[in-house]
Specification:
By secondary structure, the protein is of the alpha/beta class. The protein folds into 2 domains: 11-205 and 289-317, TIM Barrel (Alpha-Beta Barrel); 211-284, no CATH class. Helices cover 43% and strands 15% of the residues. Strand 2 (41-44), helix 3 (50-63) and strand 3 form a beta-alpha-beta unit. Helix 2 runs parallel beside helix 3 and helix 11 packs antiparallel against helix 12 (253-260). The longest helix is centred in the last third of the chain and has 24 residues, at 294-317. The two termini are 24 Å apart.
Length: 319
């Protein structure tokens, strides 16, 4: 994998591979390991208060001299406090999601911060481009965690977005192999964001039960739940089945919010409650069968990419 494009240049990375900034998963150990191996590691601020985020940023700086960033869900009530920490700690890359991309853009740009925004349709991509975001992450509905309500797949979303914006596009959703990275680039993306594969890594801060649930998952074992209030893709368990049954019965938003309750993500991902926790994972989980280090993951991603690329060159030359 020898690629030099707008995404690698934008972030100063060797490979166009970005690790998703997942709640309860993406701490400094995972982010620094990804960056050390040539990708872009992201600290997931969505499950951190300001003081904890500062601690993770400082530990990440101590662990790697290579670029890393912070993922910031804009809907958080304390988002401004997290932005303050990001600026004070001189983090130069921020991925924003779940909110208006222009909310803190002036503050970011004033401090020379490169900004990516996660989008799920063209309207959102155009908005991100218009306010000054440097790149967008086009995330298909195959992705784990919270998704766009339009349920557009990565295969359909990425080429459409890349053909209709001028800024570079990063593909996300269901990407768990070197082949999938190559496919994303063929669709018009200039990078690939990978979540679930890294969530099941040795360096992930997730509970071992959650990691094992990913390793055990088959292609039919994830589902979209809570479509009326906060749609998410999760591994099926008792909580997910209860939520699905409630939705099919036609209950209202307030009832669904009661079913969701509080701290479901923490219970499932960080505490390892496989029955009542929210186990966010993408459809690519079926391809993940063994716990690996980040280095092992990178070695397989790169070799898989190169092998498939060489195969395509070979069959093309034989035509």
């Amino acid at each position: 994998m020898n690629i030099n494009n707008r995404v690698t240049e934008l972030f100063g990375i060797k490979y166009p591979i970005i690790q998703g900034g997942m709640v309860w998963v993406s701490g400094w150990k995972l982010a620094s390991a990804v960056s050390e191996n040539g990708g872009l590691g992201l600290i997931g601020a969505g499950s951190m208060k300001a003081d904890l985020l500062r601690e993770h940023i400082q530990k990440c700086k101590a662990a790697t001299q290579k670029p890393f960033g912070v993922n910031l869900p804009l809907l958080r009530n304390d988002a401004a406090d997290l932005v303050k920490v990001i600026v004070e700690e001189n983090v130069k890359i921020v991925f924003t999601s779940a909110g208006h991309p222009g909310k803190f853009i002036e503050e970011f740009k004033k401090h020379g911060i490169t900004v990516a925004h996660v989008i799920a349709n063209l309207k959102q991509a155009k908005k991100a481009e218009s306010v000054g975001c440097d790149t967008v992450v086009a995330e298909g509905v195959e992705a784990g965690g919270h998704n766009g309500s339009d349920e557009i797949t990565t295969l359909a979303l990425v080429p459409y977005i890349s053909e209709n914006v001028e800024i570079p596009v990063i593909a996300a959703g269901g990407i768990s192999s070197g082949k999938a990275i190559l496919a994303a680039l063929a669709l018009g993306a200039e990078g690939a964001q990978i979540g679930t594969l890294f969530a099941a890594s040795v360096e992930s801060s997730a509970h071992e039960n959650f990691k094992q649930a990913i390793l055990n998952a088959k292609e039919t074992d994830t589902a979209l739940i809570l479509k009326k209030i906060a749609m998410a893709r999760v591994i099926k368990n008792k909580f997910a089945e209860d939520a699905i049954k409630a939705e099919y019965s036609g209950v209202g938003e307030e009832t669904l919010k009661r079913i969701l309750g509080e701290k479901r993500e923490r219970r499932g991902i960080f505490e390892g409650d496989l029955e009542e926790g929210m186990l966010e994972a993408g459809q690519g989980a079926a391809q993940i069968t063994k716990l690996k280090t980040v280095k092992e993951i990178f070695d397989e991603l790169i070799s898989g990419f190169d092998k498939q690329f060489e195969y395509l060159l070979k069959i093309n030359s034989e035509r």
